[in-house]
Specification:
Elements (H helix, E strand, L loop, with lengths): L2 E5 L2 E3 L5 E8 L8 E6 L6 E6 L6 E3 L7 E6 L4 E6 L8 E9 L2 E4 L3 E5 L2
Parallel strand pairs: 2-11
Antiparallel strand pairs: 1-3, 3-8, 4-5, 4-9, 5-6, 7-8, 9-10, 9-11
């Protein structure tokens, strides 16, 4: 089974930056697209960014366009989410996702808190 472990969350002031990491194991990481989601209390889960298996295609939610960058390092089985100019509305638990053979795999999530 695939396993995903997120890290890098924490407390940051508005306008600050964080880089989230998601380390994958148990599957051929380089063969699959990877997606970051987030969920804030009382709100639906939101797709934040996706990177295609060949890194040629990327998707960003309108709310993070121009501020967040998704990337990956196949040698390290790791996908990153660089978050710049963070806003209070970015506060959420961020989850890494991979869909493998029609099954969704999720990490435990990492909390991002944006507060002055």
């Amino acid at each position: 089974q695939g396993q995903l472990v997120e890290s890098g969350g924490g407390l940051v002031r508005p306008g600050g930056s964080l880089r989230l990491s998601c380390v994958a194991s148990g599957f051929a990481f380089s063969d699959y697209a990877m997606t970051w989601y987030r969920q804030a209390p009382g709100k639906e889960r939101e797709k934040v960014a996706t990177i295609a298996w060949n890194v040629g295609n990327k998707y960003y939610a309108d709310s993070v366009m121009g501020r967040f960058t998704i990337s990956k390092d196949n040698a390290k089985n790791t996908v990153y989410l660089q978050m710049n100019n963070l806003k209070p509305e970015d506060e959420a638990v961020y989850y890494c996702n991979a869909q493998i053979s029609g099954v969704d795999y999720w990490g435990q999530g990492t909390q991002v808190t944006v507060s002055s």
